[in-house]
Amino acid sequence: MARYGVCLLAFILLFAVAPCPSSSSASAQQHTLGAGSSQSVEDHDRPFLTSPQGTFSCGFQDAGENAFSFSIWYTDAAEKTAIWTANPGAPVNGRGSRITFRRDGSLALDDFNGTTVWDSQTSGKGLSVSLLDSGNLVIVSDPLSSGGSPAVWQSFDWPTDTLVPSQQLTKHTKLVSGYFGLYYDNDNVLRLHYDDPEISSIYWPDPNPNISPFQDGRTIYNSSRTGVLDDDGVFLSSDKLRVDAADLGPGVKRRLTIDPDGNVRIYSLDASTGAWTVTWAAMAQPCSAHGLCGQNAICEYQPSLRCSCAPGYEMVNHRDWRKGCTPLFTAVTNCSPAEQRVKFVEVPHSDFYGNDLGYNQSVTFEYCKKICLDMCSCAAFSYRLDGGGTCYPKGVLLNGYTSSAFDGVIYLKVPFDFDASAPAVTARSTEGLACDPNVSVTVQGSQAALFGSSRTGNGTKWTYLFAFAGVLGVLDLVFIVTGCWFLSSSRQSMPSSLALKAAGYRMVMGQFRRFTYRELKHATGNFKEELGRGGSGVVYRGVLDGGKVVAVKKLTNVARGDEEFWAEMTVIGRINHINLVRIWGFCSQGKHKLLVYEYVDNESLDRHLFNTDRTLPWRERFRIALGTARGLAYLHHECLEWVIHCDVKPENILLTREFDAKIADFGLAKLSKRDGGRDSLELSHMRGTTGYMAPEWALNVPINAKVDVYSYGIVLLEMVMGRRVSDQTTADGERLEMPQIAQVLRQVVATGNVVPLVDGRLQGQFNPRQALEMVRISLSCVEERSKRPTMDDIAKVLTACDDEDEHPAYRS
């Protein structure tokens, strides 16, 4: 009996000290979680789930500036290259976002404002979520047999851009990377497809419609339409495609990925370094992918990929070579050479695939040339001596490429007086976040480096460096390597070139995109429901094809051309903060200039603050003041581009259902690089709204971020008063000028008696300490420019005022 008592006591003690599994947050070592488990984005340094043998992990992954995605990756990889991502292309905010396995049985990803941006759409009792050693994230009904019981939902059924061993590609699934897709076509053949809003074409296995799948070793006689990568590195497809990884054999971790350059590759993980190595590629010539360089541009691989303009053309946008090139000459519009003399510039070993105006076989060169001369729409012609003579007149110059293995020649139609000796313009890019938006670098390097892909790991970096070595020499190469290592060692330094490229590509092909005017016209129901209007344009409610509700602003009086507008928007699109309205994209199509914003459904601050039928409580006012200060501080100090809003006013402060502030219209502000001296810029015209504009706008002096500080001070005072500052008058009915208002504020600060200034509708329900501090800040904001605080200083002061468990109310 004594021994039994001792054993029982030991059991009780063991049970008492054993840790209980948490149902509210995930452990880094757990591979199965029950209902109620969750993880916030702030805990992104540890995984949400890890597979039983530790092969795979899933959790929050860095996806850009203050942006994260919920993804799965190989645990041992040096870089967390995602093999699957929930809601790809639309990352969530780096603060306040959360992944939750809800008690109703659904796995859901919530953004910082509580909006569910993705969920598994499952339901039921007794469900659990598990990460298997295959890399499959599953939701099953029996947690004890998750490896064998049928899954209610699994990530393998919803691939993004990658397949892992044992994961099938089927007729119902598709791998997508940007505008590129790998899928089974209606003829049961596995194909690569380029599909942007304007152009669509198949480019693999062979883009030539006269080449049958059988000539490419495929067959259309199958109905299963499945492909799978096995553990030995063999990819087998039902159309009889078989490819072998160069390191064929078991025991290697691999993935098959469609990369941002449109090529499909098998990657193998180096167990010693954690780096990915390419062990197979669908296309030996990367320029075979369509849409890489844009219209009138030529893709070249020597041995690194680069985009160049055809002779007589220049780059439309040095930030995005996919926009192609524009002619340096007036378009040849007349059909007759007698009316407008023309000539042809020869570009050997080059062609522009597709967009043929005709096909002529067994013709002479002169006859082919005459065909193009006589056609108004002919921009060039291709002539090949392939046993006879084939002629292809070209209407549009797309999908250009140059290869020494190509035996054809393209002849470009240009004016007779055009100087054909001028060199072609190489594509330049300033992808990613950079302190100076005017800096440009020649696009050279591997095909993966060109599009900012980190999937080739260290191999991409070395290819990129070697591309410069031929130009800069050995000493410059050493300097660049040393410089990149130094910069990458500090989070505060400018990112390395490859990091810039990756960030830029994630922005362009991620949540920020370019819309067509037709898309936005359809989304808004022909601009039917107006949400508001101002000096910069009219805002309409819209619903995108995916069901996302957005606000579409049709801009008016925009003097910028497409290139300048695109340049500003590519930078603005990377800016993401909890107190800024997210910009999903834009449209720049001729005279149509539109912005697509996140929809914020609680109207703007002015509707609540100045409406006599409602009273905005003090707690919400202070929260809005603090959120607005933090948003502006981010634009002025934290954002890698220096952004001046130039029109801070209550109408541009939108409110969520929880009365969190979101600053709108910062996408219209002028961007400028940081200057070690004055941090100022010249603007061609005054910006802003009367009553909120700083005095320096009228003094013809360089404008800096202190104009926003002035405007914020006015808004802050209005939140205290509940009235427009510009509407304040004397007893005689004369409008009060700012010097008079400032004198009143000095008296309030000196006496500490803030009660007469506070909105009477609050009936004394306000925090006197906060109100006095807001008045003090407002006064400092409207001083002369050199004496104004920064938005960072203001945010810190207001944050200190917010550090109270209970906000005491002042009762008069």
Structure commentary:
The chain is of the alpha+beta class. It folds into six domains: about 30-160, Agglutinin, subunit A; about 170-285; about 295-430, Hepatocyte Growth Factor; about 430-510, no CATH class; about 515-600, 2-Layer Sandwich (Phosphorylase Kinase, domain 1), CATH 3.30.200; about 605-800, Transferase(Phosphotransferase) domain 1 (Transferase(Phosphotransferase), domain 1). It is about 20% helix and about 25% strand. The chain contains 13 helices and 48 strands. It has a six-stranded mixed sheet, sandwiched between helices. Strands 3, 4, 5, 6 and 7 form a five-stranded antiparallel sheet that branches. Helix 9 (about 620-640) runs antiparallel to helix 10, helix 11 runs antiparallel to helix 12 (about 770-780) and helix 12 (about 770-780) runs antiparallel to helix 13 (about 790-800). Residues about 1-30, about 145, about 425-510, about 670-680 and about 805-810 have low confidence and may be disordered.
